[in-house]
Amino acid sequence: MSKLTLFNTASQRLEEFAPLVPGQVRMYTCGPTVHDYSHVGNFRTVLFQDLLRRVLESQGYQVTQVMNITDVEDRIIRKSAERALSIDEYTAPYIDAYHEDLSTLRVEPAAEYPRATRHIPEMVSLIQQLDAKGHTYVSDGSTYFRIASFPRYGVLSHLNLSGIKAGARVDVDEYSKEDPRDFVLWKARKTGEHFWETALGPGRPGWHIECSAMSMKYLGETLDIHTGGVDLIFPHHEDEIAQSEGATGKTFVRYWLHAQHLQDATGEKMSKRLKNFATVRDLLAEGYTPRAIRYALLTGAHYRSPLAFSEDLLRQAEGAVRRLDEFVVRLNIAEDATGLPPEDVKRQWDDALSNDLNIQEAVGQLFKFVGGLNTRLDSASVSEAERASAYAMLKHANRILDVIDFPARELEDTITRLIAERKSARDANDFARADAIRDQLKAMGIQLYDTKDGVRWKRL
Ligand code: AMP
Ligand code: ZN
What we know:
alpha/beta
Protein backbone atom coordinates (compact mmCIF):
# COMPACT_ATOMS: atom_id res chain seq x y z
CA MET A 1 0.00 0.00 0.00
CA SER A 2 1.37 3.39 -0.82
CA LYS A 3 1.79 5.94 1.97
CA LEU A 4 -1.13 8.10 2.96
CA THR A 5 -0.82 11.64 1.66
CA LEU A 6 -3.23 14.40 2.62
CA PHE A 7 -3.64 17.97 1.44
CA ASN A 8 -2.75 20.31 4.28
CA THR A 9 -4.55 23.64 4.04
CA ALA A 10 -1.76 25.26 6.05
CA SER A 11 1.05 24.31 3.64
CA GLN A 12 -1.22 24.19 0.58
CA ARG A 13 0.55 20.95 -0.36
CA LEU A 14 0.08 17.20 -0.28
CA GLU A 15 1.97 15.88 2.69
CA GLU A 16 2.79 12.39 3.80
CA PHE A 17 0.82 11.70 6.95
CA ALA A 18 2.52 10.61 10.15
CA PRO A 19 0.92 11.15 13.57
CA LEU A 20 2.81 12.59 16.50
CA VAL A 21 2.49 9.36 18.49
CA PRO A 22 3.07 6.38 16.19
CA GLY A 23 -0.09 4.41 15.54
CA GLN A 24 -2.42 6.91 17.19
CA VAL A 25 -4.29 9.77 15.58
CA ARG A 26 -5.93 12.60 17.49
CA MET A 27 -8.51 14.32 15.36
CA TYR A 28 -10.84 17.23 16.07
CA THR A 29 -13.85 18.09 14.03
CA CYS A 30 -15.95 21.25 14.25
CA GLY A 31 -19.45 19.96 14.85
CA PRO A 32 -22.92 21.36 14.35
CA THR A 33 -24.46 24.55 15.62
CA VAL A 34 -27.68 23.15 17.00
CA HIS A 35 -30.02 26.05 16.35
CA ASP A 36 -31.96 23.88 13.87
CA TYR A 37 -31.67 20.59 11.96
CA SER A 38 -28.40 20.12 10.09
CA HIS A 39 -28.71 19.90 6.30
CA VAL A 40 -27.09 17.43 3.91
CA GLY A 41 -24.39 20.03 3.14
CA ASN A 42 -23.27 19.78 6.76
CA PHE A 43 -23.34 16.01 6.40
CA ARG A 44 -21.16 16.11 3.30
CA THR A 45 -18.43 17.49 5.53
CA VAL A 46 -19.25 14.87 8.16
CA LEU A 47 -18.96 12.08 5.58
CA PHE A 48 -15.60 13.44 4.42
CA GLN A 49 -14.50 13.14 8.05
CA ASP A 50 -15.93 9.63 8.23
CA LEU A 51 -14.00 8.72 5.07
CA LEU A 52 -10.78 10.13 6.51
CA ARG A 53 -11.29 8.29 9.73
CA ARG A 54 -12.08 4.94 8.10
CA VAL A 55 -9.08 5.23 5.79
CA LEU A 56 -6.83 5.94 8.79
CA GLU A 57 -8.35 2.99 10.64
CA SER A 58 -8.02 0.67 7.67
CA GLN A 59 -4.32 1.58 7.62
CA GLY A 60 -4.04 0.41 11.21
CA TYR A 61 -4.21 3.70 13.10
CA GLN A 62 -6.18 3.99 16.27
CA VAL A 63 -8.19 7.20 15.83
CA THR A 64 -9.55 9.30 18.67
CA GLN A 65 -12.02 11.73 17.19
CA VAL A 66 -13.72 14.53 19.08
CA MET A 67 -16.57 16.53 17.62
CA ASN A 68 -17.92 19.54 19.49
CA ILE A 69 -21.52 20.66 19.65
CA THR A 70 -22.00 24.41 19.49
CA ASP A 71 -25.00 24.86 21.74
CA VAL A 72 -24.60 28.54 22.55
CA GLU A 73 -24.50 31.30 19.92
CA ASP A 74 -26.62 34.21 18.73
CA ARG A 75 -29.35 32.27 16.95
CA ILE A 76 -29.73 29.76 19.77
CA ILE A 77 -29.93 32.54 22.34
CA ARG A 78 -32.46 34.49 20.28
CA LYS A 79 -34.68 31.54 19.37
CA SER A 80 -34.70 30.02 22.85
CA ALA A 81 -35.62 33.41 24.32
CA GLU A 82 -38.43 33.83 21.75
CA ARG A 83 -39.88 30.50 22.82
CA ALA A 84 -39.26 31.10 26.52
CA LEU A 85 -37.11 27.97 26.74
CA SER A 86 -33.78 27.42 28.42
CA ILE A 87 -30.85 26.85 26.06
CA ASP A 88 -30.85 23.15 26.96
CA GLU A 89 -34.57 22.79 26.36
CA TYR A 90 -34.28 24.52 23.03
CA THR A 91 -31.27 22.56 21.71
CA ALA A 92 -32.15 19.08 23.03
CA PRO A 93 -34.32 17.99 20.08
CA TYR A 94 -31.74 19.21 17.55
CA ILE A 95 -28.90 17.43 19.33
CA ASP A 96 -30.96 14.22 19.38
CA ALA A 97 -31.83 14.65 15.70
CA TYR A 98 -28.18 15.18 14.84
CA HIS A 99 -27.14 11.92 16.48
CA GLU A 100 -30.03 10.15 14.80
CA ASP A 101 -28.93 11.48 11.39
CA LEU A 102 -25.35 10.41 12.06
CA SER A 103 -26.49 6.89 12.73
CA THR A 104 -28.85 6.92 9.72
CA LEU A 105 -25.82 7.76 7.59
CA ARG A 106 -23.70 5.10 9.32
CA VAL A 107 -21.13 7.61 10.49
CA GLU A 108 -18.66 6.09 12.95
CA PRO A 109 -19.30 7.75 16.31
CA ALA A 110 -16.73 10.12 17.77
CA ALA A 111 -15.15 9.32 21.12
CA GLU A 112 -16.64 12.50 22.61
CA TYR A 113 -19.23 15.11 21.64
CA PRO A 114 -18.40 17.91 24.09
CA ARG A 115 -20.91 20.72 24.36
CA ALA A 116 -19.90 24.36 24.64
CA THR A 117 -22.29 25.07 27.52
CA ARG A 118 -20.59 22.34 29.56
CA HIS A 119 -17.11 23.83 29.15
CA ILE A 120 -17.43 27.44 30.27
CA PRO A 121 -14.76 27.07 33.03
CA GLU A 122 -12.26 25.65 30.51
CA MET A 123 -12.89 28.58 28.17
CA VAL A 124 -12.55 31.12 30.98
CA SER A 125 -9.27 29.60 32.06
CA LEU A 126 -7.92 29.63 28.51
CA ILE A 127 -8.85 33.31 28.18
CA GLN A 128 -7.06 33.98 31.47
CA GLN A 129 -3.94 32.27 30.10
CA LEU A 130 -4.13 34.48 27.02
CA ASP A 131 -4.57 37.50 29.24
CA ALA A 132 -1.48 36.59 31.26
CA LYS A 133 0.52 36.51 28.02
CA GLY A 134 -0.73 39.89 26.85
CA HIS A 135 -2.99 38.70 24.04
CA THR A 136 -6.23 40.24 25.29
CA TYR A 137 -7.89 43.52 26.19
CA VAL A 138 -11.24 44.43 27.65
CA SER A 139 -13.60 46.89 26.08
CA ASP A 140 -17.13 47.62 27.32
CA GLY A 141 -17.05 44.49 29.47
CA SER A 142 -16.10 42.17 26.61
CA THR A 143 -12.70 40.51 26.23
CA TYR A 144 -10.99 40.55 22.84
CA PHE A 145 -8.02 38.82 21.27
CA ARG A 146 -5.46 41.35 20.06
CA ILE A 147 -4.30 40.16 16.63
CA ALA A 148 -1.33 42.52 16.70
CA SER A 149 0.07 40.39 19.55
CA PHE A 150 0.21 37.27 17.36
CA PRO A 151 2.43 37.83 14.30
CA ARG A 152 1.67 34.40 12.83
CA TYR A 153 -1.96 35.39 12.32
CA GLY A 154 -2.94 34.40 8.77
CA VAL A 155 -0.76 31.26 8.48
CA LEU A 156 -3.70 29.05 7.68
CA SER A 157 -5.87 31.15 5.43
CA HIS A 158 -3.04 32.93 3.58
CA LEU A 159 -5.36 35.88 3.21
CA ASN A 160 -3.91 39.28 2.64
CA LEU A 161 -5.30 41.05 5.65
CA SER A 162 -3.37 44.27 5.16
CA GLY A 163 -6.38 45.82 3.42
CA ILE A 164 -8.13 45.92 6.77
CA LYS A 165 -6.88 49.08 8.42
CA ALA A 166 -5.36 48.33 11.77
CA GLY A 167 -6.02 50.75 14.57
CA ALA A 168 -9.33 51.99 13.21
CA ARG A 169 -11.90 51.89 15.94
CA VAL A 170 -15.10 50.42 14.62
CA ASP A 171 -18.27 49.17 16.17
CA VAL A 172 -19.15 45.68 15.12
CA ASP A 173 -22.16 44.02 16.62
CA GLU A 174 -22.26 46.77 19.26
CA TYR A 175 -18.90 45.74 20.66
CA SER A 176 -15.96 48.10 20.24
CA LYS A 177 -12.58 46.77 19.16
CA GLU A 178 -9.12 48.30 18.82
CA ASP A 179 -8.59 46.67 15.45
CA PRO A 180 -11.29 45.34 13.14
CA ARG A 181 -9.42 42.03 12.86
CA ASP A 182 -9.59 41.45 16.63
CA PHE A 183 -12.18 38.98 17.68
CA VAL A 184 -14.23 38.50 20.78
CA LEU A 185 -13.32 35.85 23.34
CA TRP A 186 -15.89 36.72 25.95
CA LYS A 187 -19.04 38.76 25.21
CA ALA A 188 -20.38 41.03 27.93
CA ARG A 189 -23.87 40.26 29.16
CA LYS A 190 -26.71 41.92 27.28
CA THR A 191 -30.04 42.53 28.95
CA GLY A 192 -32.46 39.70 28.51
CA GLU A 193 -29.79 37.30 27.26
CA HIS A 194 -28.58 34.14 28.88
CA PHE A 195 -25.24 34.69 30.67
CA TRP A 196 -22.67 33.04 32.92
CA GLU A 197 -21.23 34.75 35.98
CA THR A 198 -17.45 34.22 35.72
CA ALA A 199 -14.10 35.74 36.64
CA LEU A 200 -14.25 37.57 33.29
CA GLY A 201 -17.51 39.20 34.34
CA PRO A 202 -21.05 38.21 33.40
CA GLY A 203 -21.38 37.15 29.79
CA ARG A 204 -20.98 34.31 27.35
CA PRO A 205 -18.20 32.86 25.25
CA GLY A 206 -17.37 33.82 21.68
CA TRP A 207 -17.66 31.02 19.15
CA HIS A 208 -13.96 30.43 18.43
CA ILE A 209 -12.78 29.94 21.98
CA GLU A 210 -14.97 26.88 22.51
CA CYS A 211 -13.11 24.83 19.90
CA SER A 212 -9.67 25.74 21.28
CA ALA A 213 -10.76 24.92 24.82
CA MET A 214 -12.55 21.64 24.04
CA SER A 215 -10.09 20.27 21.50
CA MET A 216 -7.12 20.80 23.82
CA LYS A 217 -9.02 19.46 26.83
CA TYR A 218 -9.81 16.15 25.12
CA LEU A 219 -6.90 15.74 22.72
CA GLY A 220 -3.94 17.63 24.18
CA GLU A 221 -2.19 20.81 23.11
CA THR A 222 -1.06 19.48 19.73
CA LEU A 223 -3.61 17.70 17.55
CA ASP A 224 -2.73 15.56 14.56
CA ILE A 225 -5.70 16.52 12.42
CA HIS A 226 -8.32 19.26 12.53
CA THR A 227 -11.14 19.25 10.00
CA GLY A 228 -14.13 21.28 8.91
CA GLY A 229 -15.77 22.77 5.85
CA VAL A 230 -13.84 25.40 3.85
CA ASP A 231 -16.02 28.18 5.25
CA LEU A 232 -14.37 27.59 8.62
CA ILE A 233 -10.80 28.30 7.45
CA PHE A 234 -11.26 32.01 8.02
CA PRO A 235 -11.82 33.34 10.54
CA HIS A 236 -12.80 30.37 12.74
CA HIS A 237 -9.75 28.15 12.35
CA GLU A 238 -7.34 31.06 12.01
CA ASP A 239 -8.69 32.33 15.34
CA GLU A 240 -8.39 28.87 16.91
CA ILE A 241 -4.69 28.86 16.01
CA ALA A 242 -4.18 32.33 17.51
CA GLN A 243 -5.95 31.35 20.74
CA SER A 244 -4.38 27.93 21.18
CA GLU A 245 -0.84 28.78 20.16
CA GLY A 246 -1.05 32.16 21.91
CA ALA A 247 -1.80 30.30 25.15
CA THR A 248 0.49 27.25 24.86
CA GLY A 249 3.31 28.43 22.62
CA LYS A 250 3.07 25.02 20.88
CA THR A 251 1.92 23.94 17.44
CA PHE A 252 -1.84 23.53 17.71
CA VAL A 253 -2.59 21.38 14.65
CA ARG A 254 -0.25 19.41 12.39
CA TYR A 255 -2.62 18.74 9.47
CA TRP A 256 -5.55 20.98 8.59
CA LEU A 257 -8.08 19.37 6.25
CA HIS A 258 -11.10 21.11 4.76
CA ALA A 259 -13.98 19.86 2.67
CA GLN A 260 -15.49 21.84 -0.16
CA HIS A 261 -19.16 22.63 -0.07
CA LEU A 262 -22.23 20.86 -1.20
CA GLN A 263 -23.98 23.17 -3.64
CA ASP A 264 -27.46 23.42 -5.03
CA ALA A 265 -28.15 22.91 -8.74
CA THR A 266 -27.25 26.54 -9.48
CA GLY A 267 -23.81 26.32 -7.87
CA GLU A 268 -24.73 28.15 -4.66
CA LYS A 269 -23.50 26.80 -1.35
CA MET A 270 -26.28 24.88 0.37
CA SER A 271 -27.19 26.86 3.47
CA LYS A 272 -29.99 27.59 5.89
CA ARG A 273 -29.72 31.26 5.10
CA LEU A 274 -30.39 30.80 1.38
CA LYS A 275 -33.15 28.28 2.11
CA ASN A 276 -31.73 26.01 -0.62
CA PHE A 277 -31.18 23.06 1.65
CA ALA A 278 -32.54 19.59 2.29
CA THR A 279 -32.25 17.68 5.53
CA VAL A 280 -31.64 13.94 5.83
CA ARG A 281 -35.21 13.70 7.11
CA ASP A 282 -36.57 15.44 4.00
CA LEU A 283 -34.80 12.96 1.74
CA LEU A 284 -35.96 9.93 3.71
CA ALA A 285 -39.53 11.24 3.47
CA GLU A 286 -39.07 11.48 -0.30
CA GLY A 287 -38.20 7.79 -0.31
CA TYR A 288 -34.41 7.87 -0.71
CA THR A 289 -32.62 5.24 1.30
CA PRO A 290 -30.03 6.11 3.94
CA ARG A 291 -27.48 4.09 1.99
CA ALA A 292 -28.07 6.10 -1.20
CA ILE A 293 -27.73 9.40 0.67
CA ARG A 294 -24.50 8.20 2.26
CA TYR A 295 -23.14 6.96 -1.05
CA ALA A 296 -24.04 10.19 -2.87
CA LEU A 297 -22.40 12.47 -0.31
CA LEU A 298 -19.39 10.21 0.19
CA THR A 299 -18.48 9.40 -3.40
CA GLY A 300 -20.12 12.17 -5.46
CA ALA A 301 -16.88 14.15 -5.76
CA HIS A 302 -13.41 14.40 -4.29
CA TYR A 303 -13.66 16.18 -0.94
CA ARG A 304 -11.68 19.16 -2.24
CA SER A 305 -14.11 19.74 -5.11
CA PRO A 306 -17.57 21.19 -4.74
CA LEU A 307 -20.41 18.72 -5.21
CA ALA A 308 -23.69 19.69 -6.84
CA PHE A 309 -26.66 18.14 -5.11
CA SER A 310 -29.43 16.88 -7.36
CA GLU A 311 -32.04 14.19 -7.80
CA ASP A 312 -29.79 12.67 -10.43
CA LEU A 313 -26.96 12.29 -7.97
CA LEU A 314 -29.26 10.48 -5.55
CA ARG A 315 -30.72 8.23 -8.25
CA GLN A 316 -27.29 7.28 -9.49
CA ALA A 317 -26.33 6.49 -5.92
CA GLU A 318 -29.43 4.28 -5.53
CA GLY A 319 -28.39 2.45 -8.70
CA ALA A 320 -24.79 1.98 -7.57
CA VAL A 321 -25.80 0.60 -4.19
CA ARG A 322 -28.28 -1.76 -5.84
CA ARG A 323 -25.61 -3.02 -8.25
CA LEU A 324 -23.26 -3.75 -5.35
CA ASP A 325 -26.01 -5.54 -3.40
CA GLU A 326 -26.93 -7.65 -6.39
CA PHE A 327 -23.34 -8.49 -7.12
CA VAL A 328 -22.80 -9.73 -3.57
CA VAL A 329 -25.89 -11.88 -3.79
CA ARG A 330 -24.85 -13.24 -7.18
CA LEU A 331 -21.52 -14.30 -5.73
CA ASN A 332 -23.59 -16.59 -3.55
CA ILE A 333 -20.96 -16.97 -0.87
CA ALA A 334 -21.47 -17.68 2.79
CA GLU A 335 -20.75 -14.80 5.18
CA ASP A 336 -17.83 -16.65 6.73
CA ALA A 337 -16.34 -17.72 3.41
CA THR A 338 -12.59 -17.38 3.47
CA GLY A 339 -10.79 -15.70 0.65
CA LEU A 340 -8.41 -12.82 0.12
CA PRO A 341 -9.24 -9.91 -2.17
CA PRO A 342 -7.53 -10.03 -5.57
CA GLU A 343 -4.20 -8.31 -4.94
CA ASP A 344 -4.28 -5.94 -7.91
CA VAL A 345 -7.84 -4.77 -7.24
CA LYS A 346 -7.14 -4.27 -3.55
CA ARG A 347 -3.96 -2.36 -4.33
CA GLN A 348 -5.79 -0.03 -6.73
CA TRP A 349 -8.45 0.58 -4.10
CA ASP A 350 -5.98 1.23 -1.27
CA ASP A 351 -3.68 3.37 -3.38
CA ALA A 352 -6.50 5.60 -4.59
CA LEU A 353 -7.60 6.23 -1.01
CA SER A 354 -4.02 6.78 0.15
CA ASN A 355 -3.78 9.47 -2.48
CA ASP A 356 -5.57 12.22 -0.57
CA LEU A 357 -8.72 10.09 -0.18
CA ASN A 358 -9.48 9.73 -3.87
CA ILE A 359 -12.73 7.85 -3.38
CA GLN A 360 -13.93 8.52 -6.91
CA GLU A 361 -10.93 6.73 -8.36
CA ALA A 362 -11.34 3.89 -5.83
CA VAL A 363 -15.01 3.41 -6.65
CA GLY A 364 -14.28 3.63 -10.39
CA GLN A 365 -11.80 0.75 -10.07
CA LEU A 366 -14.20 -1.24 -7.91
CA PHE A 367 -17.01 -0.97 -10.47
CA LYS A 368 -14.65 -1.94 -13.26
CA PHE A 369 -13.86 -5.10 -11.32
CA VAL A 370 -17.53 -5.76 -10.51
CA GLY A 371 -18.54 -5.18 -14.13
CA GLY A 372 -15.88 -7.55 -15.43
CA LEU A 373 -16.77 -10.34 -13.07
CA ASN A 374 -20.49 -9.82 -13.61
CA THR A 375 -20.04 -10.48 -17.32
CA ARG A 376 -18.16 -13.66 -16.56
CA LEU A 377 -20.78 -14.74 -14.04
CA ASP A 378 -23.27 -14.43 -16.93
CA SER A 379 -21.31 -16.48 -19.40
CA ALA A 380 -18.72 -18.82 -17.97
CA SER A 381 -18.31 -20.59 -14.70
CA VAL A 382 -16.43 -18.74 -12.02
CA SER A 383 -14.76 -20.91 -9.40
CA GLU A 384 -15.85 -20.86 -5.78
CA ALA A 385 -12.38 -19.58 -4.86
CA GLU A 386 -12.64 -16.66 -7.26
CA ARG A 387 -16.09 -15.80 -5.99
CA ALA A 388 -14.86 -15.93 -2.40
CA SER A 389 -12.01 -13.63 -3.36
CA ALA A 390 -14.41 -11.14 -4.96
CA TYR A 391 -16.59 -11.32 -1.88
CA ALA A 392 -13.57 -10.51 0.29
CA MET A 393 -12.84 -7.51 -1.94
CA LEU A 394 -16.36 -6.18 -1.46
CA LYS A 395 -16.02 -6.64 2.29
CA HIS A 396 -12.75 -4.72 2.15
CA ALA A 397 -14.29 -1.86 0.17
CA ASN A 398 -17.28 -1.79 2.46
CA ARG A 399 -15.09 -0.99 5.47
CA ILE A 400 -14.95 2.45 3.89
CA LEU A 401 -18.15 2.65 1.88
CA ASP A 402 -20.45 0.98 4.42
CA VAL A 403 -23.36 0.84 2.00
CA ILE A 404 -23.52 -2.86 1.17
CA ASP A 405 -25.87 -4.97 3.23
CA PHE A 406 -24.29 -8.38 3.31
CA PRO A 407 -26.98 -11.02 3.70
CA ALA A 408 -27.37 -12.02 7.31
CA ARG A 409 -25.83 -15.34 8.21
CA GLU A 410 -29.05 -16.94 9.51
CA LEU A 411 -30.96 -15.95 6.41
CA GLU A 412 -28.25 -17.46 4.26
CA ASP A 413 -28.31 -20.66 6.30
CA THR A 414 -32.06 -20.94 5.84
CA ILE A 415 -31.78 -20.29 2.13
CA THR A 416 -28.97 -22.82 1.74
CA ARG A 417 -30.95 -25.42 3.70
CA LEU A 418 -34.11 -24.84 1.63
CA ILE A 419 -32.15 -25.05 -1.62
CA ALA A 420 -30.68 -28.38 -0.49
CA GLU A 421 -34.14 -29.68 0.47
CA ARG A 422 -35.46 -28.59 -2.89
CA LYS A 423 -32.67 -30.49 -4.62
CA SER A 424 -33.45 -33.66 -2.65
CA ALA A 425 -37.13 -33.28 -3.50
CA ARG A 426 -36.29 -32.95 -7.18
CA ASP A 427 -33.88 -35.85 -7.08
CA ALA A 428 -36.76 -37.89 -5.62
CA ASN A 429 -39.07 -36.59 -8.39
CA ASP A 430 -41.21 -34.84 -5.77
CA PHE A 431 -41.78 -31.76 -7.96
CA ALA A 432 -44.73 -30.52 -5.96
CA ARG A 433 -42.51 -30.28 -2.88
CA ALA A 434 -39.70 -28.64 -4.92
CA ASP A 435 -42.11 -25.99 -6.23
CA ALA A 436 -43.51 -25.39 -2.76
CA ILE A 437 -40.00 -24.64 -1.53
CA ARG A 438 -39.40 -22.27 -4.42
CA ASP A 439 -42.64 -20.45 -3.50
CA GLN A 440 -41.65 -20.34 0.13
CA LEU A 441 -38.37 -18.69 -0.80
CA LYS A 442 -40.17 -16.28 -3.06
CA ALA A 443 -42.36 -15.28 -0.13
CA MET A 444 -39.13 -14.56 1.77
CA GLY A 445 -38.06 -12.27 -1.09
CA ILE A 446 -35.59 -14.72 -2.62
CA GLN A 447 -35.63 -15.69 -6.27
CA LEU A 448 -33.87 -18.91 -7.35
CA TYR A 449 -31.99 -19.37 -10.61
CA ASP A 450 -30.97 -22.75 -11.95
CA THR A 451 -27.61 -22.31 -13.64
CA LYS A 452 -25.13 -24.82 -14.92
CA ASP A 453 -23.08 -24.19 -11.78
CA GLY A 454 -26.02 -25.13 -9.64
CA VAL A 455 -28.68 -23.04 -7.99
CA ARG A 456 -28.08 -19.33 -7.41
CA TRP A 457 -30.34 -16.92 -5.57
CA LYS A 458 -31.05 -13.25 -5.62
CA ARG A 459 -33.07 -10.85 -3.51
CA LEU A 460 -36.22 -9.66 -5.23
P1 AMP B 1 -22.63 24.61 11.24
O1 AMP B 1 -23.70 23.70 11.77
O2 AMP B 1 -23.16 25.69 10.37
O3 AMP B 1 -21.74 25.12 12.33
O4 AMP B 1 -21.70 23.74 10.27
C1 AMP B 1 -21.22 22.46 10.57
C2 AMP B 1 -20.25 22.00 9.50
O5 AMP B 1 -20.88 21.95 8.21
C3 AMP B 1 -19.03 22.89 9.31
O6 AMP B 1 -17.87 22.06 9.17
C4 AMP B 1 -19.30 23.63 8.01
O7 AMP B 1 -18.11 24.00 7.36
C5 AMP B 1 -20.06 22.59 7.24
N1 AMP B 1 -20.92 23.11 6.16
C6 AMP B 1 -21.81 24.11 6.20
N2 AMP B 1 -22.44 24.27 5.01
C7 AMP B 1 -21.93 23.32 4.17
C8 AMP B 1 -22.16 22.94 2.80
N3 AMP B 1 -23.06 23.56 2.04
N4 AMP B 1 -21.44 21.92 2.29
C9 AMP B 1 -20.52 21.26 3.05
N5 AMP B 1 -20.27 21.56 4.35
C10 AMP B 1 -20.96 22.57 4.91
ZN1 ZN C 1 -14.75 24.86 15.57
